[in-house]
Design brief:
Largest sheet: 7 strands, mixed
Helix content: under 10%
Radius of gyration: 14 Å
Distance between the termini: 38 Å
Length: 128
C-alpha cells in the first residue's frame, strides 16, 4: 500500500494550489480520506476529511477556503483525492500529508492516530 502526495510549492498569499494524493496497492473506494498538515515546531493537525458517503468536514481555519474531493475514475487499482487550497495565507505554510483509513468514525476523524495509511507529505510555503 502506498500513498503519494504531490502538488505543493512556493506561492504568494492569496494564491491557490491543488494537492493530490494517489493511493495504490488496494481498493480505497470505501476508505475515509483526509489531509493533515504540520508546520515547523508544531504538531500535525487535521485539515479536512472526506467519508465514503462524500460527507466532508474541515478544520475551522480552512473552512470556506479549502475543498477536499476525490477522483471519479473507475480505475480500481488506484484512488486519487485532492485538496484544493485557495486564498492561501502565510499561516498555511506547512508540510501537507494525506491519510486514509477504512474504519473511521466521525468522532476520531481529526486524530492522527486513527489513520492506518499515510503519504510522505508535500511542502506548501506561502510568502506574504
Amino acid at each position: 500500500v502506498q500513498l503519494q502526495a504531490s502538488g505543493g510549492g512556493l506561492v504568494q498569499a492569496g494564491d491557490s494550489l491543488r494537492l493530490s494524493c494517489v493511493a495504490s496497492g488496494r481498493t480505497f473506494s470505501s476508505y475515509t480520506m483526509a489531509w493533515f498538515r504540520q508546520a515547523p515546531g508544531m504538531e500535525r493537525e487535521f485539515v479536512a476529511a472526506r467519508f465514503r458517503s462524500a460527507t466532508s468536514i474541515y478544520a475551522d481555519s480552512v473552512k470556506g477556503r479549502f475543498i477536499i474531493s476525490r477522483d471519479s475514475s473507475r480505475d480500481s487499482t488506484k484512488t486519487t483525492w485532492f485538496l484544493q487550497v485557495n486564498s492561501l495565507k502565510p499561516d498555511d505554510t506547512a508540510v501537507y500529508y494525506c491519510a486514509a483509513d477504512s474504519s473511521l468514525i466521525l468522532s476520531s476523524v481529526r486524530s492522527t492516530s486513527a489513520y492506518d495509511y499515510w503519504g510522505q507529505g508535500t511542502q506548501v510555503t506561502v510568502s506574504s
